[in-house]
Specification:
The structure is a single chain. This protein is an alpha/beta fold and 387 residues long. The chain is built from 13 helices and 15 strands. The strands form three sheets. An eight-stranded mixed sheet has the order 1-9-8-5-4-2-3-14, sandwiched between helices. A four-stranded antiparallel sheet has the order 10-12-15-13. A three-stranded antiparallel sheet has the order 7-6-11, with no helix packed on it. The radius of gyration is 21 Å and the shape is globular. The structure holds pyridoxal-5'-phosphate (PLP). The site of pyridoxal-5'-phosphate has 14 residues, from helix 3.
Length: 387
């Protein structure tokens, strides 16, 4: 028996305008780097999320790196960072020669725990060494509890960088996720809610800061006809062709959000009453995009583990994945300090043990989603679920 068509976790989903805009870039012969599409993309992004300015770069990782350098993160400094995330959230700390300190999640949002953050600040305040910055990650399309987090960071005068790579389009108290910190970072990697195949955006209300970072991102070229450089720079800018794709994608972002939220709703209706199944909660006063439908499966009640569900789906040619492995558990960061939610309770480790992400692409058809749901129900039945 042949396998059914593969169902991916979160594949790209192009709209109708992207090809025309790329064509425009070709016709004007603005292929790379930079050009009018980049400028328009920056302007449209800034308007969409409601900030003064935006800087288009070649990845979300580059955007984070620029933000940390601007905040003078340097050799021997420490930076607090959400532990429950993709490695790209913390790597730029190390690029700057600084050391990450990892902060656990809370149950309400799965994102940074304000109480773990407060304990970390108390600890480092006693040592007389505050972090240079706090990187707050907004996972799976949901904002962290930014009011509580900003209150703590403001008390200590430490700036926040929001890693909103996964939360473009989400809101918190009616305001766009990624616009709460000094800097916000979005990603247009192939698996994100909108994509340019690869790319990122740095947003801020501080136009002067963005100008400085734009300079660094284009090899720090001084104002001179000859190539002169007084500062270290990078080749971090986004190409004009990819910005054209980004503009088309931004035009359909709201549609992508409602599609992903509907997909979540269908999973929720079909699976939320199964014993041991718990979907990622929706934080009060926030509207997540449900970039990925994420849930935990407690094997004690479900009679099956999240890993076994992922395997069963893989056998049906369906891509599901574990949630992010906490960064403090990564071999790369094994020597870094970690502050759990409470002294003896680590939420991110529990989420990692039981969590999984289901196929959530905005182009997932109802038929394909039914295949995913049926496969899960079948494997549950075959295990003789406890009632
Ligand atoms: C995708 C992602 C990034 C990195 O973005 P790139 O554009 O791939 O460099 C950073 N943080 C999180 C949480 C991400 O999911």
């Amino acid at each position: 028996m042949g396998l059914d068509k593969r169902i991916f976790l979160s594949p790209p989903h192009m709209g109708c305008e992207e090809e025309r805009l790329v064509q425009e870039a070709f016709e004007s012969n603005w292929i790379s780097p930079l050009g009018p599409q980049v400028e328009a993309f920056e302007k449209e992004m800034a308007e969409y999320v409601g900030v003064n300015g935006a800087l288009a770069v070649n990845s979300g990782t580059s955007a984070l790196h620029l933000a940390l350098r601007y905040l003078r993160v340097d050799q021997g400094d420490i930076v607090f960072c959400s532990t429950f995330s993709f490695v790209a959230s913390a790597n730029p700390i190390v690029y700057q020669g600084a050391v990450p300190v990892f902060i656990d999640s809370e149950c309400e949002s799965w994102n940074m725990s304000p109480s773990a953050l407060a304990r970390a600040f108390a600890h480092y305040e006693r040592m007389g060494k505050l972090p240079k910055a706090v990187i707050v990650v907004n996972l799976f399309g949901q904002s962290a509890d930014m009011s509580a987090i900003l209150r703590i960071c403001d008390q200590h005068g430490v700036p926040v960088v929001e890693d909103a790579a996964e939360s473009l389009g989400a809101t918190y108290h009616g305001k766009a996720s990624g616009t709460f910190g000094k800097f916000g970072v979005y990603s247009f990697n192939g698996n994100k809610i909108i994509t340019t195949s690869g790319g990122g955006m740095l947003v801020s209300d501080d136009r002067e800061a963005l100008t400085k970072m734009r300079f660094w991102a284009s090899q720090s070229r001084d104002l001179a006809v000859h190539y002169q450089h007084s500062e270290l720079g990078y080749n971090y800018r986004l190409s004009n062709v990819l910005a054209a794709i980004g503009r088309g994608q931004l035009g359909v972002l709201d549609k992508r959000i409602s599609a992903r939220r509907s997909i979540f709703q269908r999973y929720y209706l079909a699976l939320s009453n199964l014993d041991g199944f718990m979907f990622m909660p929706e934080l009060a006063n926030s509207l997540p995009t449900r970039w990925l439908t994420a849930l935990t499966v407690n094997p004690l009640y479900a009679g099956i583990s999240s890993g076994e569900i992922i395997e069963a789906l893989a056998e049906e040619n369906i891509e599901a994945r574990p949630v992010w492995k906490p960064l403090h558990l990564q071999p790369l960061f094994k020597d870094c300090k970690y502050f759990p939610h409470t002294q003896d309770k680590s939420i991110s480790e529990q989420l990692f043990k039981d969590g999984l992400c289901l196929p959530s692409g905005s182009n997932l058809s109802e038929e394909d989603q039914d295949r995913v749901i049926k496969c899960i129900l079948t494997v549950m039945n075959s295990r003789g679920t406890k009632k």
